[in-house]
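Weekend entry, working from home. Most of the wet-lab plans are on hold until the incubator is repaired, so I used the time to fold the two sequences that have been sitting in the queue since the last round of cloning. Logging both here for the record. First:
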Amino acid sequence: MEWLWPWIQVLCFLVLTDLLWTLPISKEQWPRLEDMELAEGYLRRFYHMSPSSGPRPRNRRATSALGEKIREMQGFFSLKQTGRLDLQTLSVMRKHRCGVPDVENYSFNPDQIKWKNHTITYRIDQYTPDLTQEEVDTSFRLALKVWSDAAPLKFIKVNHDKADIILSFAKKTHGDFFPFDGPKGVLAHAFEPGEDMGGDVHFDEDEIWTMGYNLFTVAAHELGHSLGLSHSKDPSSLMYPNYNYYNGAQYTLPRDDALGIQALYGKPVRKQDPPNLPKKCDPNFSVDAVAVFGQEIVFFKNRTTWTTYWNRLREGPSSTYLPSINSPVDAAYDIPAHGVAYVFTGNGQSDRLKGLTEASQHDRARFETECCFKEPLDLNYSPASKLSHFMQEAHKAHWHLAVLIVCFHRVPNAVKVLCVSGPKYWVVRQLKMKSHFGSIYDYGFPARVRHIDAAVHISEYGKTFFFIGRDYYR
């Protein structure tokens, strides 16, 4: 009988094990019904789990599918991948988060993951009553700045319907097949770049947008999606699905997010140091060009501009006065009768600024720059194109140039342009350039004058001014 004793022990163990498996599971071990509903809703929304027939899995296959999705979610959040709804997993599921799925196949435009242009427009379609419009505008502006500081992006606020990104606050069902869930839970969601709703950001109006829910952080995260970024597994990342709240004025984009946005749009362009303003009292001071634009007399020096209007002198970067001009100005002149101004830059090329004489200081930036020629030897028959050809050759020879214009008011469309280089000058009269040139000394300039820095004719006074260093002749 001794040989039966081991088999009796094995049989007792199997019976005891079977009894243990048939005992009811305690409430602490089996997830509650509301926990199962929370988990299923969470996994369907953020991990594309197929909906089951009820709140609990009814068969082994459903149980296996649920476990796989739980493990996938646990892996994304760096949790222990048990496949069970433990307390740590449920705690993550209950946190406030973004409404965009954590998996990457949520794209509506799989062929377009970024904006084609680096200048992106946005519009605020609907404000929240929880904050003032100024507070909302500031939060969005700071959120956009986070991304424009890390990549060569420029954001422009507009009021028309064709904005690339539209930001709005809405409740529950709001027309995009992704209804909000009320207070807490999902705070906002966004769409990746594309047409129609692409790039748009929606914020849940059922939330109380105060210091409790930092609008800046939520907006900065969602705008990352609007620019083409997915969620990050790095808990310190701005693109982590669960929100962490930051101070917008002092926030710096983490490395993980910076690398992501730069992979799409490149590294930011290094900002040039602001130009040193020339010292007007410097004994060696001279101007590069002088022109009359409408009612303003404009002086150019390097990248700085001075404008005089009604005895008021304004000083600032040339890019502020003429945003399209990026190089130092060699010469410029304006034809008020034609509504056209010509600006010659350091490369010998000219830009034609249409409508500049009618433009105010505020509107000037809206005018487009149009180059008036393409090839130096294939010229349009106009004084500007002939001058441009001449100035390109002069630029190669390192000559200093000055241009002035005289309009004959008695003769329609009659224009005479005098181009000065060193001690010589050339004349363009209407569409013909004279074949000969003259000497500035024929006009009484002293022998010590080796070149003229700038020249301008002010028809209002009937005077012509020649600028040489800090002096001028008229």
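Second, folded right after the first finished:
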Amino acid sequence: MRRILSYAEDHTPGQPSTFQKRHHYAFTDVGLGQGGFGVVMKATQIKDDTPVAIKKVPKSVVKDKVAYRRIVSFMIDSSHPNIVRFLEAFESKHHFYTVYELVESKQDLFDRLLDVKHFTENDAKAAMRSALSATAYLHDRQVIHRDLKLENFMMRSTHSGPGDLVLIDFGTSLVLQDGQAGGLTEVTGTPGYMAPEIYKKKGYSYLADIWSLGTVCWMLLSGRSLYSTSTDYPVIMRETLALDEAPFPEQVFHDITDDAKAFIRHLLDPSPSTRASARDALDHKWLSRQAMTPKFDTSHRTPASMESDAHGLLPEKGQPKLEDGATVNDAEGSRFAGTATMPHELLDPHSAPDSGTNTPKPTDMAKAREKHTGEELMISSALLERVRTRQ
């Protein structure tokens, strides 16, 4: 069922001139999800009947509207095979609207990992090369994503191979201005993927994205979480700060090559000054030996023992993000339970998101729960000791 977009604001005097673009689209009643402070809806471009996705964000939650328009404008002018294609944007008196391509597949990298338990090295190489290529494209153009994770890499189609990924969700992204690189201090992102320098609030930049991708690669090859918990965010923070180097428990990584481990170590380097850049990571010898994998490898690796695993199970899909503006000292409190997905400097903390009465809710949480019911989370004694000594 299709309908032409119609809101009470259609008839509100003083609308921005770009709001007339709303007539280019017919909206369906299908909600595609809720991301950040906006609702994503399915629509059709009227002139050629092309399906698209449109995100609607209340202006009341966007404090720095100039910065918001800047990242949207950048995305519209961007073109990369592994980044979702932004088509155009318009706004009303009360909302921002962003139109982008509708990705055919409803499956993301998290879903795929749950299906196959863990990736083969060749499949992980294909996925990481695409993820790093998209990230390098952004960094070369002074854009930091700030929320790279399994759920934000969509499979382009239901028949996609491991490298046919599309990066989505630029709600936390920033176009950095001259002199801004290295000076970000907002605690923003999804715990379990956030770099240690973000928690320290002493300044971070593009290389925080690389840590996130290191976490992604570690999870793809292990089928496990890097942390002992997926819900206790203060513990995740302390374990992140306690990591001197990437751990590779024998029970999980017994059949992973030294080159793969070295690659992950370059990405999960606690020091941003020595951490690999996206371009450096793309040149790593592990990726340069990538085999062509147009389809996922169905010959599973030797199962790893779970009896003495030092790490937790995969987090449930849709884990809430860290509340923007939280500090390291807030870790003992409840501020890590927030769901904000826009950067702190863009949000008005006094405004509540206006998502309407029919806001779509995430529907995939049950899948992760069903696969992991009854499993016990464990943490190695060595890591536990490092965590305790740093409290």
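Plan for Monday: verify the second prediction. Strands lie at 2-4, 25-35, 38-45, 50-58, 86-91, 95-101, 143-144, 153-155, 165-167, 174-175.
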